Each structure stands twice: as structure tokens, then as C-alpha cells.
Amino acid sequence: MSRTRLSRVAAPLAIGLVFLLLWQAVVTIERIAPYILPTPLRVAQSLWMDGPSLLSSLLVTLKVTLAALAAAAFFGGAIALLFSRSRLLELSLFPYAVILQVTPIVAIAPLIIIWVRQPFLALLVCAWIVAFFPIVSNTTLGLNSADRNLIALFRLYGASPGQTLYYLRLPTALPYFLAGLRISGGLSLIGAVVAEFVAGTGGTQTGLAFRILEAGYRLAIPRLFAALFLLSLTGILIYLALDLLSRFLLRHWHESAAGEEEE
Amino acid sequence: MPHPPASAAAAPVVGLRGIEKRFGAMAALERIDLDIARGEFLSLLGPSGCGKSTLLRIVAGLAEPSRGERRIDVASEAGRIGFVFQDPTLMPWSTVFDNVLLPYRLLRHAGRAARERVEAAIAAVGLDGFERAYPRQLSGGMRMRVSIARALVTDPDLLLLDEPFAALDEITRMALNDDLLRLWERYRPTIVFVTHSVFESVYLSNRIAVMTPRPGHIAAEIPIDLPQPRRRELRVSAGYAALCARVSGELARAMEEARA
Description:
The structure holds two protein chains of two kinds.
Chain A: H1 3-30, H2 40-85, H3 87-102, H4 105-115, H5 119-143, H6 148-156, H7 161-199, H8 208-217, H9 221-249, H10 255-258
Chain B: E1 14-23, E2 26-36, E3 41-45, H1 52-60, E4 67-72, E5 81-84, H2 96-106, H3 112-124, H4 140-152, E6 158-162, H5 170-187, E7 190-195, H6 198-204, E8 207-212, E9 217-223, H7 238-259
Parallel strand pairs in B: 3-7, 3-8, 5-6, 6-7
Antiparallel strand pairs in B: 1-2, 1-4, 8-9
């Protein structure tokens, strides 16, 4: 383990620790009420007490998130593949993908929840809409980024479009797809939480977002912070998992993944 | 000599008649007439932007001439033409072995015989032991060797090289020059070699076609009747120096005329 790698973990941890200590000190000295800003210790306490129930809520949110991410990866990849096969298709459909992307999900989530009766599916659709675009745009870019000389070489050996896709375009697109996937991991969690917020009590199962809302109504601010903490922890874990996947798949050849082992 | 001299009357492998190429209003190539004999090592020599790469792509069938006729006498199946680009143009996600196997994969002949030929081609360029390495683990010269192995693995009739050593250092370049000559003696393809180095073209070729830009055309053809096989000692011989001087002179004169 090199020095840079050690400090990659240690440096942010140290910053976080300093921040928590300051937080604890300021709240204690200024005697800020716990329903306005609880101390980190109180949040930890609440995390311990409400942990089991919060975790089961987290599981509900996580299911939506992972299902949305899987759907985004599959359909995003498929749409990008279609776009790369037909320029006309890309030109005619890409603007609508952009429209879907720039429309705030909060604004259309109520409609989706009305249209899609099944709550889990409604949440899934919302999270998917937020998550699929980075994968589509990145993968489309990747599929069109194949080396021009390699394309010429493939032509010289009479390669079929299928061979060019399998041996050239797909491997070229893989790093782009994985970069899109890492962005979409975080976005599908955000999408799931936003959709749960909008669905509110309408949902039969209670996800983590609903617990945050509920804690806010009841001024149970330490629990709200505990739920928030779990949420960001989940986001970080999703990112790390996808980063690890990306490094594993690209370890032999891509600069992003193979850079460190030689130092 | 194990092979016929360039002037052999046998049917040429490549015959170009009145080739022209335009990109919009710009004439890239004009009135190119060129025959390339079987087994010949021909260099296209000229400055950047004289259209030598374009001409090479037309010979390969990768670009269509705007006017003129291209005749090529190789078996019609794909894989009879090998091409080496200025960059090694390897697939970074594949090992050396898989990169060299690519032509056979695309021709759907990736059986045991093909694998043996891949091993042989990798050994022929001096890279045995590196079959499982990835391109990023290799030096620039080694990558170019992989690229040459890939072009030669199907034992092509025609090998086209587009300034393959231009990005390499002088020492690597000289080593690869010798390697290319040994490979030419062994596989016997007809070679068209694009370069802007006078010394390289004289050392390697049977014949040099000097090209000038705007629009690109062949200003002079110079036979290089140095003894075969060529060895390193040749680089310091008087005959080599005299031919280099002559080719340099032709190139300078042609450039002068093109500018006038």
C-alpha cells in the first residue's frame, strides 16, 4: 500500500473527525436545542436506538434504487445501441431523452404515481427516469468513439457489422458505459428518495425518505439526521461498489483503472 | 537473387491509371500512373501533405479515387492485403496474441492452424514470451512490432505501410528497418512503404516514387539497385550515400518545381 493510497483514506477521515468535533463543541457551548441542531453524539444515539427500524426502511429504498439502476443500465445500454445503429433514430429520439432528463422529477412524479397503480413500480419508474440518461449519453458517445484506423482495418478484413460491434465498438464503449453507470448509481438513489417524498403516505411500504418526512413532522430531528446519515452512507457504498466493478473490468487496459499498480 | 527485380515484365500486383482524388475543391492527387511489380519493395517518398497516405488508402481500397482506375491482382478474398498505420492501432483491451489473431477472427478462420500462425508471426517480430501482455505494457517499438505481426499473419500478397516508424526514436527505427527487411525476405509480400525519410526509403526499397504536394503527384521514379539482401553495413557505404544524395536532389528539384 503506497503513501498516496493511505492518505486517500486517512485524509478525508481526519477532516470528517475534525468537523464532528467542532460540531459537537459548537452545539454544546451555544446550547442549541436538539430539535434545531442535535449533537453528533445524539444522532449516534438515535442511530443506535432506531437503527433496526431505519434499516428495514433503508432496505425498501435500496430495492427501488437497485432495481432502477439495473433497469437504467439495461435499457440505457439498449437505447444507446439502437442510437448507434441508426443515426436517424438517434437524431429523432435524443431530444426527447434530453427533455425527459431536464424535466424535474418532482414535477412529474405525482403523474407517474397516479398512472402507475403499483407503488413499487411507480417509484421504480421515477428513479429510472432520473438515472437512465447518463448511461444513454455516455454509451452512445462510447459506441461512436471507435478508433478510425481500427474501423478501416476491420473493413480491410471484410468484417460484418456484427463483428465490428462485438470486437470493436462494445469494448470501446465499456469505459464510457461504466462512467455513466457510476453517475447513475447516485442518481437512482436520489430518484428513489424524491419519488418516495412525493408518494408520501400514499406508499404502502415505508422507505427511508418517508421516515425523514415523518421525523421532520414530529420534530424528531436526531432521527432525521440518523436517516440522512444512512442515506449518504448508502450513496457512498453504491459509488464505491460501482467504482470497484469499473476498476475490475478495465484493470488490464484502461488508464483510469490500471494507473496505480506501476507506481 | 531469390526474387525478380522491379523491372520484371510480369503482371503488376497493383496498377494505377490516371488516379485523381479531390476533397471538395482541393485536389489531393492528380494524374497518378503507377505499376507495382510482384515482390517489389516500393517507397512513396514525399513531404507531409503530398497525398502519399491518401494514395496508399486508395491502393488498399479504403478510399475511392475521384477519377481513374485501380487494378489490383490479389486473390479476391479479404486478408490478402495487410496494412500498418502510423500508430500501432492495437486494441488496448486485447492481449498481443488476440491482437494478432484479429484478422483470422474477422475472416472466421480462428482455428488451431491460425493460432499456430499467430505464434509464428509473434516470434517472427521477436516478441515471443509477450503473447499475454497488453499493449499498454509494451514500448512504442514493441507495439509497432505487434502491428506488423498482425499485418503479416495472414501472409498477405500486398503489405502497405503508412509511415510506420515516423513516431519512433532513431535507434528503434533502424532496428525495425532491418526487421522489416528480414520479414520481407521471409514472407515475400509486395510492399508499398510510405515515408518522408530519404535514408529510410533508399535503405529499404527497390524503387522510390518521389511525390510532391498541391496537387499530389509522382514527380520522379528512381530505381534503387543496391545489392540484396541489405545489411547494416550498407548504411555507411559509398553507393548508399550516392543514392541518398541523388534522391535528395530529385526531391528538392521536384519541390522547387511544385512551388514555381
